[in-house]
Amino acid sequence: MKIRDYEYFVRKEITNVIVNIISKNKTLNIPARSRSGAEISDWLEKEFVTATKNHKYLLKAEAAPEGKTKNPWDARCFFDFKNHREEIWIDFKAFKLSATNSNPDIGTPNKVIKFIEQGGFYLLYVHVYYKQLGNRLRFIESENKIESENKMVKSYFLKDISPTFRRTPSNQLQVNISAIPTYRTRNEFIELLMNKLKEGLERQLEKAQLKLSEIDKKTKVLKNKNSNSEKSIE
C-alpha cells in the first residue's frame, strides 16, 4: 500500500468513528457559550475511546488526562494494519457556525517536532460544527461548500494543512478554519514547517530590531527632557 493510500485509510477510519458518534448524539446538554468548544472536545475524547474499544484497526485509544490543558493531544490511538502499528494523535476542534472565518491556534510546532523525532508523524485535526439550541447545542453541517466529504466532520492531517498557515509570535501554529487542506509528502511537510518557523522568527527579529532602534532614540529624548527638568529644579 502506498503511503498516500495508507494515510487516507487511517483518516477515513477515524473520521467514520466521529461521524457515527455525532449521528447518534446530534444534540448535547451543553450551553453554547464561550467554553462550549472545550466541553465538546472533552465529550468527544471520551466517546471516541468508548466507540473504538472493539475496533478492527484502532487500538488502545485514550483521552487526554483531565486537567492537563498542555497535553499534546486530545485523544490518541494506535492504528494496527498488516503488522504495522502507528501512533495517531487527534486534536478535536468544535466551532460555532458564526465562527467559521476564525483563525484559531492549533498548537505549538514544538510538540510536532518532538513527535517526529520520537518516530511519530500523524496528528489528525477533527473539526465539528454546532449551533445554539435553547440551553443546549446541536451538531450541524458545515456551510463550507468547497468540502467534498462529509459536512458534519472535517478532518485532515497536520502534514496536509493549508499552505496559508503561519507561526505566531507566541509560537503557535495558526490557520483559518475554512482553509482547504493540501496533500503533500511527509518530507514536503517537514520542509514547509521549518520554512514557516524560519519566516515567523525572521518577522520577530525584524520587529525586535526596530524596537531596539526606537529604544536608543527614546533614551535620548528622555535624557533631554530630564535635563531640562533638573535645570528647572536647580
Question: In short, what is this structure?
Answer:
The chain has helices spanning 3-24, 36-51, 109-117, 186-233, and strands at residues 27-28, 58-63, 75-81, 84-96, 122-133, 136-140, 153-157, 166-167, 173-174. The protein is α+β, with helices and mostly antiparallel strands.
Describe this structure in words.
The structure is a single chain. β4, α3 and β5 (122-133) form a beta-alpha-beta unit. It is elongated and about 85 Å long. The protein contains 4 helices and 9 strands. The protein has 234 residues and is an alpha+beta fold. The protein has helices spanning 3-24, 36-51, 109-117, 186-233; strands at residues 27-28, 58-63, 75-81, 84-96, 122-133, 136-140, 153-157, 166-167, 173-174. Strands 1, 2, 3, 4, 5, 6 and 7 form a 7-stranded mixed β-sheet that branches. The protein has a two-stranded antiparallel sheet with strand order 8-9.
Question: Stretches where pLDDT falls below 50 for ≥5 residues?
Answer: none
How much of the sequence lies in strands comes to 15-25%
Order of helices and strands: HEHEEEHEEEEEH
The overall strand count is: 9
Radius of gyration of CA atoms, rounded to a whole number = 23 Å
What is the average of the pLDDT values? 90
Oligomer: single chain
The best one-word shape is elongated
**Helical proportion, percent range:** 40-55%
Main sheet, how many strands, which sense, barrel? 7 strands, mixed
Provide the structure class: alpha+beta
Distance between the termini: 86 Å
Please report the number of helical segments. 4
